Amino acid sequence: MFNLPTGPKLNSSGGVEKDVVGEEKGCLAVVPVAEEGKTLGRLLDLIHPGQAATFDTLQSLRTTLQAANKYGMEGIVDGGEPLLLASLESDSVGVYAVACAFKFEKTTRLAAKLTLRQPMLFPFSKELECISGAALYRLLEYRQACGKQAIQAANTAWDHNLGAWCRRQSCERASQTLGMYTVTLWWWDYIHETHDRLKECPSSDAILDPALASPFIERAMKCEICQGTLPSGFGLFTSRYAKEADAAVSQVHLQVEF
Ligand SMILES: [Zn+2]
Predict the structure, then answer these.
(1) Measured in angstroms, how far is the CA atom of residue 181 from the centroid of ligand 1?
(2) Fewer CB atoms inside 10 Å of the end CB: C or N, the chain?
(3) Under 8 Å CB-to-CB from 165, ≥6 apart: which residues?
(4) pTM for the complete prediction?
(5) Beta strand 173-178 pairing with 24-25
(6) In the predicted model, is pLDDT for residue 199 greater than 80?
(7) 185 CA to middle of ligand 1, Å?
(8) How far apart are the C-alpha atoms of 42 and 147, rounded to whole Å?
(9) Looking at residue 97, what is its pLDDT?
(10) Can you tell me the distance from the alpha carbon of 158 to that of 9, in angstroms, rounded to the nearest whole number?
């Protein structure tokens, strides 16, 4: 913490000394601190009745909470967790890092789940510098496990819809079976493309991305059998696949250690 001067310093004629940096300024104590004025301003706004603190960036929120923590303002630190939610969509990785740093378990888990929408090498967040390598490793481990579970979900969703396409085998067939079934080549390629995408982004958003399915649908529509059954069957499959993937991912446990 810091020590406050005991009172204004008087000069030899009994007057108050002026502008003595680091000691007094007029009758006011000058206390050197490490934080920027903006940070302390936000901190004071948080404790000032009727004053709303504003945080333009996640970094500004983090530095303010760090200052609150430094000065033993535990109530302010605890009250900071809901403020992190505003940055979840724009910087989920950064929110994960800040939540870890301040031991906000609920937000740590929520942010980790939101990172699943990002590619495996997610966009860099400067907030990552405030967590340990172990905390980052646990996030990567979680994301990898989610990817595996989401891919597995394809098997559950797919069985329900098998046979919706090409019962008369007018499509080119894949040379390998998918499980115990022989499938069309376009379907085989589509499933493996979703697997690749889920390894990168373990989220149902990847499955529901129209751009992912588009080239495979084009191939399927060249078949006179598939073009009749595809529109309803494919949509049914993708929605079920997305649902199963989300359910599978929700079972993955993120290890959190503060
Ligand atoms: Zn076909």
Answers:
(1) 15
(2) N
(3) 171, 184, 187, 220, 225, 226, 229, 230, 233
(4) 0.80
(5) unpaired
(6) yes
(7) 9
(8) 40
(9) 97
(10) 82
